[in-house]
Amino acid sequence: MRHDRDPLGFVVESFRKHGDVVRLKLGAETTYLVSHPDHVRYFLTENANNYSKPPLVNDPFLGNGLFVSEGTYWRRQRRLVQPSFHRERLNGLLSGMADLIDGMLKSWEERTRAAQPLDVAEEMGILSLHMTTRALYSEVPDAPTTAAVRRMMHTFNARESLLARVLRLERLPLYRRKWADFFDTQRLMRRKAKEIVERRREGGSEDDIMAMLVAARDRDTGEAMTEKELRDEFMNLFSGNEGPGAALAWGWHLLSLHPEIADRLASESAAVLGGRAPTLEDLPRLRYATQVFEETLRLYPTAWKLVRIAGAADTLGKYPVAPGTVIMSISYILHRHPEFWSSPEVFDPDRFAPGGPARHKFAYVPFGGGQHICIANNLSLMFGALVLAMVSQRFRLRGIPGRRVDIHPGISLLPRGGLPMTLEPRR
Ligand code: HEM
Fold first, then answer.
1. I need a labelling partner for 416 at 20 to 30 A (CA). Which of 74, 275, 302, 387 fits?
2. For residues 398 and 233, what is the distance between their CA atoms, to the nearest angstrom?
3. DSSP letters of 222-234?
4. What's the gap in Å between 382 CA and the centre of ligand 1?
């Protein structure tokens, strides 16, 4: 099954051969692969209520939170959680983020002395995990927990294979140990959610997302979230931890292929930061770093597909949609669509410069669009720019000569087998 072996290659080829709307039969399901931004706008915004996310409600790990819910429940939860991600709130997270990045850079300095390549994808994954937990509940997991969560994320990503899912390979002895570890870590994180919810409900001085969620009240009913709702939202937000790290890994890969862009980024950091840690005032001046991150998310949108299920019968453009049809839009294709991007394969952060070329809003959807747009989009953009700026002040990252970097399209789009790179201090 080509789709199973190489899901990204399969959809890219289907688009190339058949164009903007392709009808696929994947197992028993009819799936429309949709690659025209007008169609994407239609199912994400114009008739969004007819297109719901695939059912995952009450997944043992996620419970019923923002990622998986729909309808009235989702709407209420989104209203309650949204204020924790307002811009003023994010500003308060900046110095914590800068501390974490600085800690990583110090450890890199020691490790570069050993001149060993570093798995930069893993480093970014860990940093991104720590940024997320710190924003969520003001803590950074210890080393064994960090390692367990990273193993869990790797297992999660490997599971995306349709065949593995259909055969439920996790039941086989060979896989059992890996999956036992996976479920242990899920339970560990759910215990953490319980502990944090209980502590925040008792009160305290923490000023994190969980403290805000405990204090949030529904504007219509005045009700607070129940303990279960709080635990579920904790798990849903926690599960977003990989996104920024995966994008940053691709950023370093692209920069290693384009030293002139890496140098321009380093010059901006030197001019704006001059070797010190960033402050809030610096953020708008790290414009090029933001552009590099945005352009990276164009070429490698880590959340690479948007999937919806049609409720009632409908038409999408001129195509009839039966109830239950799966609508799948691949951001990787949209972001490289030759009708909507000039030289789409070229890494060019100036596309995102102020006053840069106009574009179709739904030809660029790294954070999705419409009502379900990523709640952490601004937080991720801020973090991405800070990491790029702070790291490039201190290091140049180089790929390993002759080593190919392939894409692993799991839950996130990741460099297959990690991303070993060497670090060279910048003088
Ligand atoms: C570069 C980093 C990230 C990318 C590219 C990304 C991408 C996305 C995308 C594409 C969606 C929409 C999915 C859909 O419509 O089917 C989404 C939703 C979501 N993301 Fe992110 N995300 C990132 C970081 C994060 C982080 C760090 C968190 C948590 C702190 C997070 C939490 C969420 C949640 C809760 C939703 C569901 C929103 C809703 O349906 O109301 N994301 N994300």
1. 387
2. 39
3. -PPPPHHHHHHHH
4. 14
Ligand 1 atom closest to 78 (CA) = 41
**Integer angstrom CA distances of residue 274 from 261, 264, 271, 277, 389:** 19, 14, 6, 9, 11
Ligand 1 site, residue 287, Cβ cutoff 6 A: no
Residue range of the domain that includes 291? 2-425
Count of domains for the chain: 1
The number of the ligand 1 atom at minimal distance from the alpha carbon of 247 is: 1
| Alpha-carbon gap, residue 120 to 253, rounded angstroms | 9
Q: Residue written as tokens 């593995």? A: 164
**What pLDDT sits at residue 57?**
60
- How many angstroms is it from 57 CA to the middle of ligand 1? 17
Q: How many residues does the chain have?
A: 427
Other C-beta atoms closer than 10 Å to the C-beta of 73 total 14
Report the nearest-CA residue for atom 37 of ligand 1: 67
Domain harbouring 71, CATH code: 1.10.630.10
What confidence tens digit (pLDDT) does each residue in 136-181 have?
999 999 999 999 999 999 988 875 455 565 566 666 766 677 778 8
* Angstrom distance (rounded) from CA 38 to CA 362: 7
Q: Minimum mean pLDDT among 114-128, 155-169, 385-399: which range?
A: 155-169
Element spanning 308, H or E:
strand 305-310
Looking at this predicted complex, what is its ipTM?
0.99
- CB-ligand 1 contact for 237 (6 Å cutoff): yes
Q: How many CB atoms lie within 10 A of CB 304?
A: 23
Residue 312, pLDDT > 90, answer yes
- Concatenated DSSP letters of 319-353: EEE-TT-EEEEEHHHHTT-TTTSSSTTS--GGGGS
d(CA 179, CA 60): 14
What's the number of CA atoms in the CB half-sphere (13 Å) around residue 232? Answer: 22
Per DSSP bridges, beta strands 326-330 and 29-34 are parallel
> Residue 87's pLDDT band (boundaries 50, 70, 90)?
confident
CB-based contacts of 161, cutoff 8 Å, min separation 6:
4
Q: 380 CB less than 6 Å from ligand 1?
A: yes
- CA-based end-to-end distance of the chain: 51
- Spacing, Cα 377 to ligand 1 middle (Å): 7
- Whether 81 is in the pocket of ligand 1, judged by its Cβ within 6 Å, is no
